[in-house]
Design a protein that fits this description.
Blueprint lengths: L10 E2 L8 E3 L6 E3 L7 H10 L7 H15 L3 H12 L3
Antiparallel strand pairs: 1-2, 2-3
Bound molecules: zinc ion.
Amino acid sequence: MKCWLYESTSNKITEINNPIYFHCPTCDLIFIHDHYILSNDEDKNRYLLYDNTMENEGYVKQLKGFIKEAVQPYSHQLKKVFLQQYRPR
Ligand SMILES: [Zn+2]
């Protein structure tokens, strides 16, 4: 399978069989097999199934978990980058 970024030959990650992932030795990108990529219509239809509102307890619980695991541990670094980037001059 060719890398999505550099089109170099990539290697199947053998530790995972479903779905199938590849690793590019040139740029380190890990990407999923094209077979699992949804068409635009499939993507839209799946999106329309979501109820991402504050009234949806499951969504709110999942979002809070994501923030706790993937945002809060890095929030100090993000604040530093933001202040460096947008500091008044
Ligand atoms: Zn690559």
